[in-house]
From TrEMBL:
GO BP, sorted A to Z: amino acid transport
Protein name: Branched-chain amino acid ABC transporter permease
Domain of life of the native organism: Bacteria
Family under the similarity heading: Belongs to the binding-protein-dependent transport system permease family. LivHM subfamily.
Record field: transmembrane: 6-28, 60-79, 91-113, 133-157, 189-209, 215-232, 265-285
GO cellular component, one term: plasma membrane
Membrane topology: Multi-pass membrane protein
Keywords: Amino-acid transport, Cell membrane, Membrane, Transmembrane, Transmembrane helix, Transport
CDD domains reported for this sequence: TM_PBP1_LivH_like
């Protein structure tokens, strides 16, 4: 029983990271109706920025906040300068740009900070929480920060004018323009917020996987799995899907001998395929009907 509880708690901790990535994926998907294959590399690059700020002697939480703000601005600028000019281009053009961004961020991070593995500090330490060994202090901190971020996002989209405008722009751009909402600005802000959320995920996971340019590749796949499971049209579903993927992969790796630690990633890929085959809209997604 103790092992089961330990794996569930660890799954919730890593699932919070997957939930952040899934939410970032869904936010961009709702803005442009495409998956951002460079989302993980953007988060990785932001994590390197946080590491560099720490190396310069900036306190952890100040570096954390600065990195989130830099990522927010960077995501907004990226959408305005790269994707705004090609918003009406064919889908394949968008995919090519996403792949190009993936390679650019990966190579640029390696060029600036090299490809060696770097330790990333945790403000929570690595000791077991309460001395029981059920969950580490950093894992508990990951859960708390993830929940705080998700609650702040819920309040932002629910109770602020900008959040409501972003929801309207994503749901019905034409009607939003008719009531004076600047849809382009809202799209850019969505990109910025997705980038900021991704930076939080990168900073929180870095102490567990170590910092290097390829650190977010598997995390992004888990985030895609969570987004697809919950529904690409449902931010709340994406969060649920991220937590579910984290718990499922941990339990499968513990209790299914053939899976183990080496085959956890195929669990996420299997979930993506299974959901797309049997329920393409995800658990909480809805069908998009267009008049032609």
């Amino acid at each position: 029983m103790e092992t089961f509880v330990q794996q569930v708690l660890a799954g919730i901790a890593t699932g919070g990271i997957y939930a952040c990535m899934a939410l970032a994926v869904v936010m961009i998907y709702q803005a442009i109706h495409h998956l951002n294959f460079a989302q993980g590399e953007m988060a990785m690059f932001s994590t390197f920025i946080a590491w560099q700020l720490l190396q310069w002697g900036i306190p952890y939480w100040l570096a954390f906040g600065l990195t989130v703000m830099i990522s927010l601005a960077g995501g907004f600028i990226l959408e305005r300068t790269v994707f705004k000019p090609i918003e009406n281009a064919p889908v394949l053009s968008h995919i090519v740009v996403f792949i190009a961004l993936f390679a650019i961020f990966n190579s640029l991070a390696g060029f600036i900070w090299d490809f060696t593995i770097k330790p990333f500090p945790s403000p929570f330490g690595s000791a077991a929480l309460f001395g029981e060994g059920l969950i580490g202090a950093h894992q508990a901190g990951m859960i708390v920060i993830t929940l705080v971020v998700l609650l702040l996002l819920f309040a932002f989209f629910r109770y602020t004018r900008i959040g409501l405008a972003m929801r309207a722009a994503a749901a019905n751009p034409e009607s939003a323009r008719l009531v004076g909402i600047r849809v382009g600005t809202m799209t850019g802000l969505g990109w910025g917020m997705a980038s900021a959320i991704g930076s939080v995920a990168g900073i929180l996971i870095a102490p567990m996987v170590f910092l290097e340019p390829n650190m977010m590749l598997s995390i992004l796949l888990y985030g895609f799995a969570g987004a697809v499971l919950g529904g690409l049209t449902s931010p709340g579903g994406a969060v649920f899907g991220g937590f579910t993927v984290g718990v499922v992969e941990n339990l499968a790796g513990t209790y299914i001998p053939v899976v183990g630690a080496e085959l956890k990633l195929p669990i996420a890929l299997f979930l993506i395929v299974a959901v797309l085959v049997f329920r393409p809209t995800g658990l909480f997604g809805h069908r998009v009907i267009q008049r032609v």
